[in-house]
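Design request, tokens follow.
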């Protein structure tokens, strides 16, 4: 009655006209303190702390992506990353399966690469699908590993004691070929020298006979395969033919 309001507007229907109502939305919070004065929000939740209550803030997490388009409307994620394509951004995906392979993130050995089988050939904790060197032979798979899936040499009967003179095999998985100690030339062979191939794999590729199977790869085989006969060139990784 003391404030002119010919339209008699009363948005919250409380019997007090808007022109003289100190709580226009009727939520119990005075307009001067209300972070959404025209929309009822008694709890005054303001997720991003920008002074606008969530119920009237078009961008509740203040990540510059409007709530209607935001795959994490209450968690800032400007990049909108959603690696498993489930419509829930990685930043707020409560399923905790970022790559959508059915394995929870906390158990997944390839967090951002789908690998439901969780294969880990070298048992290093990184799944084969995301492990740059899945067989841990010192040669990255994408950089020329000629024999992916290498383990220690599964040559029948070969142990350090049965390696022939100047014969080689990788027997303990440390990436260094063993010999029997009779090594007057001082040669050293690493798995990286052989392109990630074990003696057994070289034998299989080249079709070498029982002598190599029983006693390990000879100096000449190793030299030819690794290219030590021509140090100016890249290793040819080829079989000895004579």
């Amino acid at each position: 009655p003391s404030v002119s309001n010919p339209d008699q507007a009363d948005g919250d229907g409380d019997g007090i006209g808007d022109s003289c109502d100190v709580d226009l939305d009727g939520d119990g919070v005075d307009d001067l303190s209300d972070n959404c004065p025209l929309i009822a929000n008694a709890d005054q939740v303001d997720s991003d702390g920008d002074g606008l209550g969530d119920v009237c803030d078009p961008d509740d997490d203040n990540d510059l992506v409007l709530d209607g388009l935001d795959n994490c409307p209450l968690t800032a994620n400007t990049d909108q990353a959603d690696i498993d394509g489930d419509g829930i951004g990685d930043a707020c995906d409560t399923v905790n399966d970022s790559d959508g392979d059915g394995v929870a993130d906390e158990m997944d050995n390839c967090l951002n690469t789908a690998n439901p089988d969780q294969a880990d050939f070298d048992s290093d904790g990184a799944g084969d699908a995301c492990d740059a060197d899945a067989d841990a032979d010192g040669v990255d798979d994408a950089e020329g590993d000629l024999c992916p899936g290498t383990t220690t040499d599964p040559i029948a009967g070969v142990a350090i004691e049965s390696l022939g003179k100047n014969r080689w095999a990788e027997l303990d998985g440390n990436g260094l070929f063993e010999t029997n100690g009779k090594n007057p030339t001082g040669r050293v062979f690493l798995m990286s020298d052989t392109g990630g191939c074990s003696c057994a794999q070289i034998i299989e590729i080249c079709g070498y006979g029982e002598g190599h199977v029983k006693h390990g790869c000879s100096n000449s085989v190793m030299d030819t395969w690794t290219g030590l006969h021509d140090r100016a060139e890249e290793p040819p990784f080829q079989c000895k033919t004579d």
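Comment from the thread starter after seeing the answer: thanks! The longest strand covers residues 167-168.
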